[in-house]
Every structure is written in C-alpha cells, then in structure tokens.
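Quick one: structure tokens for this chain, please?
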Amino acid sequence: MPQRVYCSSDANFSVREARSIVRDLFEPNPAIYWGDFLLSMALGAGCFFASRRVVTPYSPGQVLLALAACFAYYRAALFIHELTHLRKESFGLFRVAWNVLCGIPFFMPSFLYHTHLAHHARKHYGTPDDGEYLPLGIRPRGEILKYLLQPLVIPVLAVLRFVLFTPLTWASPRLRRFVRQRASSMVMDPSYVRPLPNPVELRVWRFQEVGCFLYGLAAAILFAGGWLPVSLLAHAYVTAVVVLLLNHVRTLGAHRFRHQGEPLTFVEQLLDSVNYPRWPLTSELWAPVGLRFHALHHLFPSLPYHALPEAHRRLMRQLPGDSPYRRTESPGLLASLRELWQAAGSSSPEGASPTGRRTRTGRAAGGATMSGAA
C-alpha cells in the first residue's frame, strides 16, 4: 500500500481566513449563467448542423465545425455541475431549461449527477463511497487506458438506460432497484452503488426519465421510418464520444488520484486537487465552467463558476506564503497527465486491490454504472 503523507500545515490552514478573502464573491449572477449556457447551446447546434449542410463532406472545414460543436456542447453539458451546487430553491427556470435543451436530449438529466455531493463530503472524498474517485495514480497504467475507453460505450449505455430499461422498470421492481442503484450515476467507479432516492428525489427522477424515454422513442421512430438519415445518428454518436473523451481527460487532471480509500484530512483533500490558472483561453476549452479551478472549487463548492478566477487571484495574493493552497497549482494539463502516468507506472502491485477496484463494506465489488463521466 502507498504510504500516507500527512501535511504539517494541516492545523495552520484557516478556511475562515480564506473565506474572508472571497466573502463577496458567493452570489451567482443569473445573467451570466443564462447567457453562457444559451450561447454555448446555440453555437454547438449551429456548428453541428453547419458541418452537415454548409461545407464539403470530409473537408477540413467540416472537421473544424464538428470539433467546434463538440467543445460548445461540452461547455453547455458541464453546467450540470453548477446545478448540483446552486441552492435547491434557486435557478428553478434555469434548471428546467438546462434539462429540456441539454440534459434530456443528451440523455444526461440532472438527477444523474446528484451523487456529486458525496464527492465533496469530507468523510466520503476518496473513499469507496466516493463514486467520482479511482486511485489511478497507484494502479497499473492499463487502468488509465481502460478509463479512457469508456466514452466509446457510454452513449450506447445511456440510450439503453433510458429508452429500453426505463419502461421495463415500470413493470419490474427488481430491475427498477438495479437500474436506480447501478445505472443512474455519472461517476468514475463502475462498481459504485447509488443510494436509493427519497420520495422528493424520486418525483424529479420520474419526470426526467420520462422525458428522456419520450425523446429517445421519438428519435427511434424518426430514424426507423427514414425521416432522419442514419448518417445523423453516426454523427451524433461521434460527437458524444468526443464530448465524453474531453470530460474523461479533464477528470484525469482534476485530482492526483493517489489515495487507496483511507479517510483524508481537509488539507490532504485540497492538495489532492488541482488548479490550472495559466493559459486561460485554452484551459477554458478543456475545463470550462470553472472546472480549471478544481482545488478552489473543493475549498468553496458554493462559489459560482464565474467568480473562481478572481477568487484564485485574491487567495494567491493574500494567503500566507506557506499556505498549502499555493501547492494546488499545475503548470498545465499535460504536466498533470504526465505526472499521473509516471506515478501509475512506478506504483507497486500492492497499491491496488487484487480486483482492480476498491472494496466496500456491504457492497459488491463489481457492477455496471451507466456513465464514467465525473
């Protein structure tokens, strides 16, 4: 097992001091959320259909437009992360709009990501109860490659989950329980078992599930009847794979992934997370909607994404010179990926469980999770 490293500065880091530096930045701006999301969706749709109608097939122009659509859709989709952290009683119309325009058509309704809050719980982070954490930095490199192959199958699994299994769960309580626990989460760990929803959550689930089912059924009828070309389906699949691959690569750079499952102190959790303040134009492409400041987000999850750059600048200016927060910066994504790859290659076989997955108390080590996205 990897030796646990304790931070001598654990007791010296003051969350209260850090919060006082950014205390005026916690109010989200609805105009920014609406404008950013709608512009991203419009740009994605415009580039997607322009790549099919305007330019010559298989030309460089078509490739560029298709890639632009992927990046725009990727940005729009990642607002699901903000929805999880916004106060439940706020942004009601925005939540509906996001699900109608993005979540349901992409088969990623917002209820799939409610488990993200466990990733921020201090007692769960990095433990087997955190579905968004895998100790890839202490596992064989092949585990990283297997993780990066998930985007090839996730679109198919998502369609099956909502178009085939959703109506079947209405008739089978046993299948319904399995789907809710094993195929209703956006997580990294395929062995993750989601807690069953409470009655309030279940009402949200049902509306969003039915929406995805009806959308998928309508699409299936249109494709089967010849009203929509098969090439559109292939194009949509490739777009989904690219968007998911972007998110998987980003996720590999979000944390250092060196912990096998032991509980961590708050500062250890902070230092296991990474900020990317440099190269903002390119960083916003692969880690949009504030996700390039992932360590800062773990420090203050309720900070709106548009306030993170200013918050980081203030903290770097005003925190003490020996603050552990200063050690969360990375020079870039490639540097972090290289570090993860090297760490995985140098880890001992004892650094991971024999099955390649963390074990859970009272939980099977294997399973099927719909999405490997985090």
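Residues 10-29+113-351 form one domain.
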